[in-house]
Amino acid sequence: MKATSAEQTVANQDRHVAPSFAEALRFWLKLGFISFGGPTGQIAIMQTELVEKKKWISQSRFLHALNYCMLLPGPEAIQLAIYIGWLLHRTWGGIVAGSFFVIPSIFVLWALSYVYAAFGNIPWIKGNLTAIILGIVVVSVLPIVIAWLRHRRASR
Predict the structure, then answer these.
(1) Which is deepest, 8, 36, 83, 104, by most CB within 10 Å?
(2) What is the pLDDT of residues 119-137, one digit of tens each?
């Protein structure tokens, strides 16, 4: 199967193999369900998955995209997802990345809200919920900080 110009551009610029549209769709859907910790945690998950594990985009390209999205008004995590989706598969890639970045989390929040409303007055649930959320944020932020420090050291 012949690669589209968008896939060739990303592969040439990053020297990484661009995923198929179906692979990218599955990733964005998964990200929508597992992205916790606010924008910092979401960006850290994208960095870990897209740069380190899947190697769909280079570290320098990711940081360039992140810097660009931080300059724009609005939530940079979803902007970054849309931008990377666009880089990989142009318009439809951006639409899918943006949609699946948000829609699954709606269902996760509904479920968590129900658990909190129904069982939030039980002391051990209330105490453990705070610790779990804090742990998720810390674990999701560490990879992006470490990657940034490594990239900064390598660029000197």
Answers:
(1) 83
(2) 878 888 777 877 877 887 7
Note the residue count of the chain. 156
Contacts 24+ apart (CB under 8 A), 81-84: 81/28, 81/31, 81/42, 81/46, 84/46, 84/50, 84/56, 84/57
- Residue 73 and residue 23: Cα distance in Å, rounded? 29
List, in order, residues 6 or more apart from 45 with CB less than 8 Å away.
31, 34, 35, 37, 140
Q: CA-CA distance, 129 to 117, in Å (whole number)?
A: 13
Is residue 87 within 8 Å of residue 6, measured between CB atoms?
yes
The pLDDT tens digits for 38-81 are: 788 889 889 999 999 999 999 999 999 999 999 999 999 999 99
Residue 101 CA to residue 149 CA, distance in Å, equals: 27
Structure-derived torsion over alpha carbons of residues 97, 98, 103, 109, reported in degrees to the nearest 10: 110
Question: What are the tokens at 136?
Answer: 């998720």
Q: What's this model's pTM, rounded to 2 decimal places?
A: 0.70
- Separation CA 43–CA 36 (nearest Å): 10
